[in-house]
Amino acid sequence: MTEHLNHFIGGASFEASDGRRINLVNPVTEQVYGSSAQGTTEDVDRAVAAAHRQLEGGAWSQLDGAQRGQLLSKLADLVERDTELLADMDANAIGRSPIEPRRMDLPNAIANLRAAAGWANQLEGRTIPTGGYFGTKTLSYTVREPVGVVGAIVPWNSPLMITVWKLAALLAAGCTVVIKPSEETPQSALHLAVLAQEAGFPDGVINVVTGYGNEVGRALCEHPHVAKISFTGSPEAGREIQRTAGVLFKRVALELGGKSPQIVFDDASFDDALRGCALGLFANQGQVCAAGSRILVHRSIADRFGAALADAAQAVNVGDPRQPGVQMGPVAKKAQFDRVNRYIQLGIDQGASLLAGGVSTPERGWFVRPTIFTNANNAMAIAQDEIFGPVGTLITFDSEEEAIALANDSSYGLAATVWTTDLVRAHRVAAAVKAGAVGINCWSPLDANLPWGGVKTSGIGREGGFAGAVAYTEEKVITVLLPS
Ligand code: NAD
């Protein structure tokens, strides 16, 4: 079936203003299976106007927190109803097995919507005692107001889940939104917008404009009626967005990349650490911002751990993810395939040794063999750069201090994992590692109630949890003079 996807603006479907389209390509077959509207500045204008109208006296602006919460609850139910469909949409678009989004992305998205339904009625202001105004008593209080129209710019690796992280929080806060999904994966965001209409959200609260970052994304960043940009994606695009939107004083939240360490001490449960490292390397073909792609291992267990990880890599069944027994599909797009292979070659050229995998040359489909490097050091490109593919780099350490120094010797700081049975050490290392989230004996736990985000090049701001909803509000202070 050929998919013909259009923008969703003000509750209706629109072609691009100039009729241009973007081909959608299947990463397994490399065949075009459909197309989406290639959004223009005019399309963004139309969508932002629809979102802005809802905030300026529209039906949405009249709802209170409890009513917004009810709508979010209904949307959660509808997403739950369509779990299989949404998981298939995301999986097919990037060649991922639908089992992963069914087990991870969809339950997380539904939990986020349900949590946000509760937050919508809790965005309270404060009453603040003051010294009065030139001798006259005053009453000062604050209210939390929605920040305004949000431009939500989303990547392709977990399209629905990441869209919902933004959507749930901003709707709880009373904002409206124009979503720009990745050009590779517009399906689930469009379906989500249709579900929101079914749930009863007023038309224009949730709009989706498909297209490229340098057209639709840029137009959102420059639009005078967009108050906040919430971006998840690469540091390169994040930098560009900070330049464009930041200079216009828009609020900017950036969830960027990572090169997250998994620190395996010699007292760790070997099997748990092995399973956790394999998951952190190979889930979603390694196309995960928190991928645990730097495996820091104590020298005394490094050979045995490396060999076991190489066995785990070789045991991964790579192929068409719709076939039974296949655990890993291709990477999502040609550019990603070339990038991953380029880094594998660079690792070899810089002197690291392959324990498993290597440069891939499939006949058809962007398949990459799970790859493990050893004899690497932390200065190599394969240890410093985010590859965003199933490639792990093993680096040995001799002491806890060295492990911490290696973990922190990175421009990124998104996530980290500590594998040890010594809980005092675990907390000591967790405190010392510079990252937004640290897992102790578990890789990258996500929960609707936990904040998510990074330090350093991994971004600015946090999504998730109640504070994630607060981040879509402005605190306004009101002072009234109380003459006696
Ligand atoms: P990308 O930066 O290429 O694109 C992300 C989105 O931004 C897309 O919708 C794209 O069209 C748009 N875009 C690109 N350039 C833009 C610009 N100049 N202005 C406005 N919009 C622009 O990233 P990607 O390849 O889609 O995703 C992979 C990256 O996302 C990785 O670096 C990964 O680590 C990161 N990521 C981070 C998190 C997190 O929570 N921190 C989660 C998932 C992915």
Overview of the structural elements:
- This protein has helices at 41-55, 65-81, 83-94, 99-119, 159-172, 187-199, 213-222, 235-246, 270-282, 299-315, 334-349, 381-384, 400-408, 423-432, 465-470, and strands spanning 3-5, 7-9, 12-14, 21-25, 32-37, 127-128, 138-146, 149-153, 176-180, 206-208, 226-232, 251-255, 261-264, 294-298, 353-356, 371-374, 391-397, 415-419, 437-440, 459-460, 473-481.
- It has 15 helices and 21 strands.
- The longest helix has 21 residues, at 99-119.
- The chain is globular, with a radius of gyration of 24 Å.
- With 484 residues, it is α/β, with parallel strands linked by helices.
- Helix 2 (65-81) runs antiparallel to helix 4 (99-119) and helix 2 crosses helix 6 (187-199).
- The mean pLDDT is 97.
- The relative contact order is 0.14.
- The N and C termini lie far apart (75 Å).
- 39% of the residues lie in helices and 21% in strands.
- It has a 7-stranded mixed beta sheet with strand order 15-16-17-14-13-18-19, sandwiched between helices. A 6-stranded mixed beta sheet has the order 10-9-8-11-12-20, sandwiched between helices.
- It folds into 2 domains: 3-257 and 457-478, Aldehyde Dehydrogenase, Chain A, domain 1; 261-434, Aldehyde Dehydrogenase, Chain A, domain 2, CATH 3.40.309.10.
